[in-house]
Structure formats: C-alpha cells, structure tokens
Amino acid sequence: MARTMRKPRRGELTRDRVVATALDCLDRLGLEAFSMREVARAVGVFPTALRWHVPGGRNGLLAEAAALALSGVTPEGDAAKDWRAWLRDLFDRYRAAMRRHPNAAALLGAQLVSNGGVPLALVEGVLTALEAAGYQGDALRDAYNAVIAAMVGFATLEFAPEPAEDRDGWAASLRTHVEASVRDAGRYPTLARNANQVAGQAFVLRWQTGSAAPLDSGFACYVDVFLRGLDAARGSSSKAKTRDVLF
Amino acid sequence: MARTMRKPRRGELTRDRVVATALDCLDRLGLEAFSMREVARAVGVFPTALRWHVPGGRNGLLAEAAALALSGVTPEGDAAKDWRAWLRDLFDRYRAAMRRHPNAAALLGAQLVSNGGVPLALVEGVLTALEAAGYQGDALRDAYNAVIAAMVGFATLEFAPEPAEDRDGWAASLRTHVEASVRDAGRYPTLARNANQVAGQAFVLRWQTGSAAPLDSGFACYVDVFLRGLDAARGSSSKAKTRDVLF
DNA sequence: ACCTGAACACCGTTCAAGT
DNA sequence: ACCTGAACACCGTTCAAGT
Predict the structure, then answer these.
(1) pLDDT band of A201, cuts 50, 70, 90
(2) Quick one: pLDDT at residue B187?
(3) What is the value of pTM for the model shown?
(4) CB-count burial class (<10 Å; 0-12, 13-18, 19+) for B186
C-alpha cells in the first residue's frame, strides 16, 4: 500500500516531508494564502519539484495535509462496548484535531473524501457503534451519514476563518453592528431579550473565530442533543417501519 | 440601510446586478474557478470597475453571493407556535437552497458571517423556536449554536464539490478502491456486512456529490435525530442543573 | 459618480533540460 | 529517479487617468 518503499535518508525530500510541511504552511498561512511556491520555499526546493512527490498538485497536497490533520481522531476503544462513549469520544477528538489545525476544518468540512486514503477505521468504528445502538440496513447507513455530518458540522463553523485583510477593523465594525441590531426589541424581541448571552458568543453574531473564542458549552450541548437523538430515533425511520409491516 | 438610493435605469450596472451575476458565475464555474475577471466579463465591464460597486473584492463579492443564495430560507410561519415544524422547515429550506446553489454550500458552511448583512430574521426565528421548546439563558445560546451548526453541517458535506480536473477518472478509481476496501471482511467486518447499503451512498464512501446523488433519507434521519435530541436534552444541561441546585 | 487602462506581484501548471 | 529553470496563462489589487 505504501507508495514508496525506499529508505528515507536524512535530509532527503520525502512525500511525507512535503505533506507535513504543507500542513505546517496551512496552519501558518491559512487556506487562501497557501501556495505550492511557499511549500517549496519551506522545504528548500524549486516549486516544480514538488510535483514529483505529490502528483495531485495544490488540491491533492491540501487533501493530504487535511488527512494528516485527521490522523489519530478515531478512538482506539471498542465501539460496540459503549457506543455512546465511543461516539462522544470521536466528536471530541475531531474537534480537538480541528482546534490544532483550524485552517484544515474548512477543507474537511467540504470534501467528498480525503483523497489520500479513505479513513476506513473511522468508518468501521461509526458503523459498529451504530449497529450496537440498534441500527441496521438502510437505517444504519442513514444514521452513519448523520453522524459524519454532525461530527464535521460544528467545528467547520466554529473555526471558520476571519477575513485575511484588516481583521481588527472588520471585527470592530461587525461588533458595533451586531451589538446594535441585537437590542432592536421592536423587530427582534427574542433576540433583544437574550442579547447578553448571545452577542459575540453565537454563530452569525460573533466577531471572533473559534480559535480565539471557543464555543465549548455550545459544542457540549450539540453532542448531547445528537446522542440523545440517536437514542430516541432508533428503529423509528419511516422506511424501516413500512418494511417491518411488509415482511 | 440600503447602500444606494438611486433609480436603477435599464442596462445600468447596479451593485445588485453584480452580486446576482456573481452568484451565477459561482453556480457555473465553482468556487475555485470563480474570478472577478469572469464576473466582469459577464456584466460587460472592465475587471477593475467591479470594485466601485463591491468594495470587498473577491471575498466580499462571494460573501454577498452566498447571502443571496440564502435569501428565502427563513420560514414565514410563527416559530413559537409549533417549534418542531418551524425548525424542520428551516432545515429543509436551507438544504433546498444549497441544492439550487451547491457551490455556495462550502462558502456558507465555513464562514463567520455573511458579511453583507447578518440574517437577523433567521436568528430571531431560531431563538424563538428554542424558547418555545423550553430553552433559556445560556442553554438557549448553546442550543442556538447547535441548531445553526446542524442546519449547515449536512448540506455542506452533501454538496461538497468533486475535483475540478478529470472528474470521471477520479470517480472511477475512487469507486474501485472503495468497492474493494468495503468487502475486506477481515479488517472491517461491520463495513463488509453493510457494503451494499453503504458503498456509493455514504459520506467518505461515495464518488458523486449530492447534486448528482442526493442523500435524501440520510438527511431525513439527520433532522429526525436532531429534533428528537432537542426534545430530550431540554433543561438537562450540566450548567443549568447546578444552577438550579444553587438557587 | 462611474469606468477605463496599464502595471504589479503573485499564482498553478507544463515541458524541456539537466544529473 | 529526482530536480532545475524558463515560460505560459491566469489571477486580485492598486493607482492614475479619463468623462
């Protein structure tokens, strides 16, 4: 499976070294400013040389960097034993990984597949947990999709990047705008009633990304809601019901 | 509030017209290939002229296009009357909007704010629904964050774009890779047992985006799980509990 | 107020050439 | 096998100039 079976001598340019420094560049520069030329500079080589190690070009390299950021998120424990704990662990680990690599969040949040190897252990784990929870067949697949989307969803939004240029000015003007609208009791009574809990601490109403101002309790609620929902929705999908009737 | 109070004569270049054609370009070209120069071409003007109408540059224009794609998602009904129905409607409308503008999904899925006006009606509605559901104070804020993340999460992943170049070759090779791994009963027994339900129809294991192969039943399950969870988690946040004890 | 036009610095990628 | 080096087509943005 390994693409190259060579001894990687010290100081040599490896595919792995390219991917690692790519993730490093992504962390430093952000997704927009990330460039092949910068990666090449970082590893001390001409831009075009990268292509030999990473044929996928910029997108391929980003995909591999994202996959690297994802390494270690799959819990080691047995998913069948305590499926709730396993899934909760998975959610926590995914968010923690995105916390370490916030600029990879948008990448993983909107990608068909991590291009450099499908994370099959993760898939297997989720399926095992959901089977233990009582899901099977089409309902299992649907629940699996729900879990993956949920795992990815919160962190993607939480770590969404601030605009690159004039961050402070942008934050200041957005802040005053939000703090004004949020007290418009005439048009938005519920919002006004909860202005203090919400301004600067809620999606769409905040002016800092999750790296600077984490949404810990929001995430805790999110996971709670989702796990309880998985419990409650078990065996109640409309399709499953009609099938049970038919057979 | 409106930025310009002018009569927009026929054929004139308006800010709105620029944003509308920008969304059009985004739909046609995708996020990566989207360029100011192409938008300028489409409206028949020099690239630098756009900057007069849209000072935000490329990112600003994209943000406004995304906001336009989002118009009409907030349900008109009373969120306090039947909060479950209202939220379900919201989820459906958001996904439908992203179905119409798949390339805007990634944009909205990873953005702090839609830059050209915060969607306050949506915020107000969600807060009202959650208050009706029994959430208040910090727990209300947390639940709000959970709802927004959930609303955005599924569609962002479902409509994640396929690679721009060599789509067919990519799909074919990924397909064979997935179909092989998925039957590796030794390493992934649960996966192998559910290979038929899952291959090509589940996140990370599919080779088509949601525009070509919608994940309808997965989305239905997702919404179901989340709404049931909101029901069950009500008034059970750890903080709320300790507060109830203290006072 | 609204748009043209040239110029700048920076991209990703291709392709030939070196060793 | 692995990397250099030049070249190409395309960017977003700035800034002066037109009307």
Answers:
(1) very high
(2) 94
(3) 0.93
(4) exposed
pLDDT digits (tens, 9 = 90+) for A103-138: 999 999 988 566 667 899 999 999 999 999 999 999
Asked if the model's pLDDT at residue A59 lies above 70, the reply is yes
SS3 at position A119: coil
Name the DSSP letter for residue A161.
P
Q: Which residues from chain B sit within 8 angstroms of residue A139, using beta carbons? A: 221
Eight-state DSSP code of residue A71: T
Strand segments (E) across A134-221:
none
C1'-nearest nucleotide to the CA of B35: D11
Given an 8 Å threshold on Cβ–Cβ distance, is A106 in contact with B106? yes
Task: Determine the average pLDDT of the residues in A175-187.
Answer: 92
Q: Which of residues 136-175 of A touch B (CB under 8 A)?
A: 137-146, 148-150, 152-154, 156-158, 160-164, 174
Q: Which residue, among B203, B148, B121, B79, has the nearest Cα to A221 in the 3D structure?
A: B148
Q: Which residues of chain B have pLDDT under 50?
A: 1-4, 238-247
Name the residue among B128, B145, B162 with its Cβ closest to that of A218.
B145
Please report, rounded to whole angstroms, the spatial distance between the CA atom of protein residue A106 and the C1' atom of nucleotide C2. Answer: 37
Task: Convert A100-139 to b/e letters by CB count within 10 Å (16 or more is b).
Answer: ebbbbbbbbbbbbbbbbebbbebbbbbbbbbbbbebbebb
The protein footprint on chain C, as nucleotides within 7 A of a CB, is 2-6, 10-16
